[in-house]
Design brief:
The complex is a heterotrimer.
Chain A: E1 4-16, E2 22-36, E3 41-45, H1 52-59, E4 67-72, E5 75-76, H2 83-89, E6 90-93, H3 106-116, H4 121-134, H5 150-162, E7 168-172, H6 180-196, E8 200-205, E9 216-221, E10 224-229, H7 231-235, H8 238-243, H9 250-260, H10 272-284
Parallel strand pairs in A: 3-8, 3-9, 6-7, 7-8
Antiparallel strand pairs in A: 1-2, 1-4, 4-5, 9-10
Chain B: H1 16-19, H2 22-38, H3 42-59, H4 63-71, H5 74-87, E1 92-96, E2 99-102, H6 103-129, H7 132-142, H8 153-182, H9 193-199, H10 201-224, H11 243-265
Antiparallel strand pairs in B: 1-2
Chain C: E1 3-12, E2 20-30, E3 35-40, H1 46-53, E4 61-66, E5 69-70, H2 78-84, E6 85-88, H3 101-111, H4 116-129, H5 146-158, E7 164-168, H6 176-193, E8 196-201, H7 204-208, E9 213-218, E10 221-226, H8 228-232, H9 235-240, H10 247-257, H11 269-279
Parallel strand pairs in C: 3-8, 3-9, 6-7, 7-8
Antiparallel strand pairs in C: 1-2, 1-4, 4-5, 9-10
Helix pairs in contact in C: 3-4, 3-5, 4-5
Classes of the chains: A alpha/beta, B mainly alpha, C alpha/beta.
Chain lengths: 297, 266, 280
């Protein structure tokens, strides 16, 4: 069974004038299909305004579909009685680290979710400890969030979601406001949760290099899923990505350019190691070629 | 300047006062404030001083740290004393120019100064030993009965604790916006009051916009974490009275009785 | 020579328990017409440094000169310095406040004491150079999209006609396309208007392609100050202080280790491509 199942999902933002007449209709999600299996690491890519954040908010029942269906963990999100259970099973981490931490002490913030869903006091403390340890923030439990770095704040936010023991975590551009160190920290924490705790991850981002390690990638533009496939698959379609206002990691782009220049390279080279070994292969398959110089020979 | 205000700051230490239930500390502070306005004369004053000194000692907060909190209100205390000194009717002691100091004036000024200084010191014993969260929890619980007459006690407490979390963030933001506008040639210092107020617009508008944006984000984040009002919520740190809290209540009542006795007997 | 920093030291919260040295004897010369990238980790002092360049922060020790004049001397006109050394802060769209985009952009020129006509003229010119369409001029700045807001905010600084423009993380929070657009815009301004541009960033890849000089800040001091290829040569040290050279630099190193005879100086995709194609 899929943990997330979106079929023909449509969301329209409707602007009304004072008399309640429709002034403007903005289609943010346009018949979107997407599904996620438990334990997967999924990325949703798209430029700002492509509808990816609107989609994220549906997964958490913060927005209601205009039409179409969305099932999260076997629950129909449009049913009123499912709203809280859906929010509990699909936790959400937002972009701005400051605007999602509620309490003035780290551990109390992590306890906020469990408090809301009525977890007994003793168990709250156990969950807080477990979640803070799972993102490596246990030593900071007594700190004020104001004194933490951006990456640390995002890890606290992730712990706050983990404490509700969700099946999956939706991260809506969690690294957009962080520096390179913070980005690395957050991504490492998310990957670890996915591998060690088996939490399903839905990472929404516009940084291409962050999706390299995911199981499956969806690319959104104008509210539609315009591409989907494995990272390698997606990255081999450089021109298409550019059309959707995205760019590819430097290495992939370089490999693509080299291929266009006539080198016999495969599509969608993702890492440096790959490119080096491919170039070595080219050299070795053609050892007598006068163009290939090798200083070991 | 802002850093001088110790009211609302928390001083971490391991003392019996820190461990007391926030409700006891709230009650104690109320008793203390009442006692400040009940006393009249030297014996009462001595009793209050002894009481306060005892609790400051117990709290393990350095006295010098507390005194720092007074710096911010020195002007206020001075103005109040001067008013009392010159404007109280009574028997004339000294008189120069248009000002007269009377015996009651002198007495009032002295007592007023003591009252205000003690008020600040006494309240800071509570604020310095109680985290803002404990304080709001205490308020929420102490005012709990008011929910019956439809006072949104939980919501008020939640608002207070969120405000406490965002004050430092907004102060930082103010600084940033101020610098950004100064880089565009804005001037926040010169000019008369009206001009100054007008010059604040480029600072206040972005600040409000930002505060609203943050409030909006925060509301979403709270909802996403299943926040649904106070109903059905459990507490990570439920307030439970310990034996020491009972003892503290007895001490406080004893103090009140003693003070009334001293005041009426002497 | 336009900006000279001599032994600039800056301490936060001096004489309190929180005292922290944010800048430690920084010496720099910034010449007219340069395009500079200042790179550093969060807390390296890069933002503190640039706030000295237009006198928003005053050094605890040291001297700063603009066009040969000490800006810390008495009666120095800091307000006029700030119009000549324009500063675009991080997330500049957060400083928009007027009812219309046009009025907001006029705020700087108005503070310079220009007449209404001059203000409008300056504003129009600035809005044009950031590529904001005319139909937005009379709209509320709060109704623009994220990228447009940022352009409007940059125009607000440009309208003062600064001869030096400092931008603190101008691409933060933008998507790849938006990032490229803003960087191209800045490059255009540097080339067409001859403005000295100082770009503060923590992304080496963004900066490598554009600037001709990189200043690496670490722990309040200048660690490297050179052309990009020379700076990236120290990629191991850069890594140590939480920065990374562009991926291409690493690739060239890897290729060399794998036995290819490559010149490791390539810092952009174009250079790397040329270098690799030479081999094959």
């Amino acid at each position: 069974m899929n943990i997330i199942e979106a079929k023909n999902l449509v969301h329209e933002y409707i602007r009304e004038d004072e008399e309640g007449n429709v002034e403007e209709r903005l289609v943010a999600l346009d018949h979107m299909d997407l599904h996620v299996k438990p334990g997967q690491f999924i990325s949703v890519l798209g430029h700002n305004g492509s509808g990816k954040s609107t989609f994220a908010k549906h997964l958490n029942a913060l927005l209601e579909p205009t039409s179409g269906s969305l099932w999260v963990n076997g629950m129909d999100v449009t049913k009123e009685e499912n709203i809280l259970p859906v929010r509990q099973s699909a936790g959400m981490v937002f972009q701005n680290p400051d605007n999602q931490i509620i309490a003035s002490v780290v551990q109390e913030d992590v306890g906020f979710g469990p408090e809301n869903i009525g977890v007994p006091t003793e168990e709250i403390w156990q969950r807080v400890e477990k979640s803070l340890k799972s993102v490596g923030m246990w030593e900071y439990r007594e700190h004020s969030p104001n004194k933490l770095s951006g990456g640390q704040k995002q890890r606290v936010a992730i712990a706050g979601v983990m404490a509700m023991e969700p099946k999956c975590i939706v991260l809506d551009e969690p690294t957009a406001m962080l520096d390179p160190d913070g980005r690395k920290e957050v991504l490492a924490a998310v990957h670890q949760l996915n591998k060690e705790k088996g939490v399903t991850i839905i990472l929404i981002t516009h940084y291409m290099d962050e999706v390299v390690d995911s199981d499956y990638v969806y690319v959104m533009d104008q509210g539609k899923v315009v591409m989907d496939g494995t990272p390698r698959d997606i990255f081999s379609r450089v021109e298409e990505l550019k059309e959707h206002r995205l760019d590819v990691p430097q290495i992939t782009l370089l490999a693509y350019e080299l291929k266009n220049a006539g080198l016999d390279l495969p599509d969608g080279v993702l890492t440096r190691e790959e490119l080096v070994s491919e170039l070595c292969r080219l050299r070795d398959s053609n050892p007598n070629g006068s163009e290939v110089k090798d200083n070991k020979e | 300047m802002l850093r001088d205000i110790t009211i609302g700051q928390y001083y971490p230490a391991d003392s019996i006062i820190h461990k007391l239930d926030p409700r006891v500390k709230l009650f104690g502070t109320v008793i203390f404030i009442i006692s400040l306005f009940v006393f009249d004369g030297l014996p009462g004053f001595l009793l209050i001083t002894a009481f306060m000194a005892f609790f400051i000692r117990l709290s393990k907060v350095p006295f010098s740290f507390m005194v720092r909190g007074l710096k911010a209100v020195v002007m206020l205390v001075l103005i109040a004393s001067v008013f009392n000194l010159f404007l109280s009717p009574g028997e004339e002691l000294v008189s120069f120019w248009k000002l007269t100091i009377t015996d009651t004036g002198l007495k009032n000024a002295i007592f007023m100064t003591i009252r205000m200084v003690y008020l600040i010191l006494g309240t800071s014993v509570m604020t310095l030993t109680t985290t803002p969260n404990e304080l709001t929890d205490g308020l929420e619980k102490a005012l709990g009965p008011l929910t019956k007459i439809h006072v949104p006690v939980h919501e008020i407490a939640m608002m207070m604790s969120i405000a406490l979390r965002f004050v430092p963030i907004l102060i930082e933001e103010t600084d940033k916006i101020m610098k950004a506008q100064m880089a565009r040639g804005a001037d926040f210092e010169s000019g008369n009051l009206l001009k100054k107020a007008k010059n604040m617009v480029p600072l206040l508008v972005p600040l409000f916009v930002s505060a609203f944006r943050r409030a909006n984000d925060l509301a979403l984040a709270m909802e996403a974490r299943c926040y649904n009002g106070g109903e059905g919520r459990t507490k990570m740190k439920p307030l439970v009275y310990a034996k020491r809290d009972g003892v503290a209540y007895v001490v406080l009542m004893g103090y009140l009785v003693l003070l009334v006795a001293v005041n009426s007997l002497l | 020579m336009s900006l000279v920093l001599k032994d600039i030291t800056y301490r936060y919260s001096q004489e309190t328990a929180y005292e922290k040295t944010a800048l430690d004897h920084v010496n720099l010369e910034i010449h007219d017409g340069e395009f500079i990238g200042i790179i550093g980790h969060t807390g390296s002092g890069k933002s503190t440094l640039v706030q000295h360049l237009n006198g928003l922060l005053k050094a605890t020790e040291g001297v700063m000169e603009y066009n040969g004049e000490n800006i810390y001397q008495e009666k120095y006109d800091l307000k006029s310095l700030r119009t000549q050394v324009g500063m675009v802060f991080q997330y500049p769209e957060h400083q928009l406040f007027e009812a219309t985009v046009m009025e907001d952009v006029c705020f700087g020129p108005k503070n310079q004491g220009l007449t209404k006509e001059e203000q409008l003229e300056r504003a129009k010119e600035a809005l044009k150079s950031v590529g904001l369409k005319e139909k937005y001029y009379e709209q509320s700045p709060f109704e623009l999209s994220g990228g447009q807001k940022r352009r409007a905010a940059i125009a607000g600084v440009l309208a003062m006609k600064p001869s030096v423009l400092i931008l603190d993380e101008p691409t933060a929070g933008l998507d790849p396309k938006g990032r490229d657009e803003i960087l191209d815009l800045i490059k255009g301004m540097h080339e067409k208007m001859g403005i000295t541009v100082i770009l503060v960033s923590h992304s080496m890849e963004d900066v490598a392609e554009y600037v001709d000089r990189i200043i690496v800040m670490d722990n309040g001091s200048v660690l490297y100050d050179d052309v990009p290829r020379e700076v990236f040569r120290h990629y191991e040290k850069l890594e140590e202080i939480g920065l990374a050279a562009p991926q291409v630099t690493y690739l060239m190193q890897d290729l060399k280790t794998a036995g290819f005879e490559v010149d490791c100086n390539a810092t952009t995709i174009e250079e790397a491509k040329a270098e690799i194609l030479k081999l094959c």
